[in-house]
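During the reporting period the student researcher (J.K.) took over the structure-prediction task from the postdoctoral fellow and processed the backlog of single-chain submissions. One of the processed entries is reproduced below for the supervisory committee.
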Amino acid sequence: MYLDAAKKQEIFGKYGKSNTDTGSPEAQIALFSYRISHLTEHMKLNRKDYSTERALTTLVGLFLIQISEPTRRTPISYAVFILKKKT
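J.K. obtained the following structure tokens:
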């Protein structure tokens, strides 16, 4: 599987407060970004995979909802997250 427990721990450790911090918005956005990029690469190879296309559309919708949430609550932490994501 493309996203095993070790990969999740790595993502949460890099973008969250700790390896077990699965609920912070930064960690969730990073996880969504990883999943979206993986599904996008899959769709480039399998253009007629409509179930994956639907899952990708749903995931992008959830990502957009999640990415708008930290900007309303804490714009400073969101800016720090974006800067960390670019590096």
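The committee noted the following: The first helix runs from residue 5 to 15.
J.K. will present the remaining backlog at the next meeting.
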